[in-house]
Design brief:
Radius of gyration: 32 Å
Helix content: under 10%
Length: about 450
């Protein structure tokens, strides 16, 4: 950092904190920590423009938030019934609660009560979530039960991955594992609530929060004695700025600039670097990698170097005689369009091949003579070519339906189809007949 502004602030740890106006990885200033006992400076935060830029003024000491808490009616129960009342004393900033009683049972009540069935030592965990900031904290207590029936849960229930916590990139996952045991079934709990469908000894956690496994056999359920805390690195979405413009009917180019604060950049057209030059139409995104090696993807930026607007497909219909697809699109009242081009998706997803083109004054449709809707779906996009030979970005995709039929029991038939893509509609009409020229409406169902 360079050129500090504002006064230093002394914290209870006897260290000093301040800000600088310049410097840091983005040259927009930093927050730093200074230890007068060791004469060490530590950079705590780089400003990147999104979280601040060239700060001016004093830092303010803010007290850390109060953590959740609860009380128990008793922590040592010496004879059945082992009834416990739990009173939530968490501060008002928490709005969502989940309890793990340590014996395989859970609750989402604010102030639950619970009855333990067997002798044992149980760890009660309260998961309190600040739903505004999506932050979850925990509080725990130990309940001991004696003088009753011996707990039949004599198997081990532990999380077996080497770490008890981790921080991962948003969208990544972390592999969790529980004690392998062929005689038990598995369930997984996230913030005290069972995760639907998670029934294996292995679980891949994605959301930040707390995870435990529940192992059960015919006699009992047992929650793992330890839990795993997962957090996400803060994600910053890169922003694409358009610098300059392209003169009509020229071989000019403009610059796309991604926001700073990242270590590397990969663009959707294969180029790298914070800045790239483009002279063709297209949809551009950038993957920006931060200091944690997390990838952050920008929103899509549309560049249209043509004089024409991006055309819109009306629909992809079918020639009843040939079963060929007919791509039809909307007309544009302009003298700046020379022709249109139609593209069809290849055998590789999202890779489109040129299908054919028509002049501006010709009928606005193309027949795909190599298509057969009885075989599979087909996806299409179109572009316009202006009078200077420049092509617009491709239109939104339209994709045909494909109906499949197989025989069910009791002389019934299953009708299975993939939906039409390209516009919203309210319902499907299903027709039945002896051939394609003799069809009657069978039923209408919601889309």
């Amino acid at each position: 950092g360079g050129i500090p502004f504002g006064n230093l602030m002394q914290a209870p740890n006897d260290k000093l904190y301040g800000m600088t106006y310049y410097g840091g990885i983005n040259n927009k200033g930093v927050i730093f920590e200074y230890d007068p006992n060791t004469n060490d400076f530590i950079k705590k935060l780089d400003f990147n423009g999104a979280n601040g830029s060239k700060p001016y003024g004093d830092l303010t000491l803010v007290a850390p938030p109060t953590l959740p808490s609860f009380t128990t009616s008793s922590n040592n129960l010496v004879s059945p019934p082992f009834d416990v009342i739990l009173t939530n004393t968490s501060p008002s900033g928490y709005h969502s609660y989940a309890w793990n009683f340590g014996d395989g049972n859970m609750s989402n009540q604010t102030n639950p009560s619970h009855t333990y069935l067997y002798n044992g030592t149980y760890t009660v965990t309260l998961f309190a979530t600040d739903t505004t900031n999506n932050i979850t904290d925990t509080a725990t207590a130990i309940i001991t039960c004696s003088g009753g029936t011996t707990n039949p849960c004599n198997f081990t229930a532990e999380l077996t991955q080497p770490l008890s916590s981790a921080i991962i990139c948003v969208g990544d996952s972390f592999r969790l594992s529980a004690t392998p045991n062929n005689s038990v079934t598995y369930a997984w709990a996230f913030n005290g609530a069972i995760v639907a469908g998670a029934t294996d000894s292995i679980f891949y956690a994605k959301q930040q929060g707390f995870y435990m496994a529940v192992l059960s056999n015919a006699g009992c359920s047992k929650v793992t004695d330890n839990y795993f805390a997962l957090a996400n690195y803060t994600a910053t979405t890169p922003i694409i700025s358009i610098i300059g413009s392209i003169a009509p009917c020229s071989n000019d180019s403009l610059m796309l600039e991604a926001s700073s604060g990242f270590t590397s950049y990969n663009w959707s057209n294969g180029k790298t670097g914070q800045n790239i030059y483009v002279k063709e139409s297209g949809y551009f995104t950038v993957n920006a990698y931060d200091n944690n090696s997390c990838v952050n993807t920008s929103t899509e930026t549309i560049i249209n170097v043509a004089l024409a607007d991006i055309p819109k497909i009306c629909a992809v219909s079918v020639d009843a005689n040939t079963n060929h697809n007919i791509v039809q699109w909307q007309a544009q009242s302009t003298n700046k369009i020379d022709s249109f081009r139609v593209y069809r998706e290849s055998s590789i997803a999202n890779l489109y091949d040129f299908l054919g083109g028509v002049a501006y004054n010709d009928p606005l449709q193309v027949e795909d003579v190599n298509s057969n809707v009885a075989v599979r779906q087909y996806a299409y996009k179109i572009t316009a070519i202006d009078t200077c030979g420049k092509e617009t970005p491709v239109s939104l995709k339209h994709k045909t339906m494909h109906l499949m039929i197989n025989e069910a029991i009791n002389n019934h038939w299953n009708l299975i189809w993939r939906p039409y893509e390209g516009f919203s509609f309210g319902s499907y009409k299903i027709y039945r007949g002896t051939d394609s020229t003799n069809m009657t409406l069978l039923t209408t169902i919601s889309s």
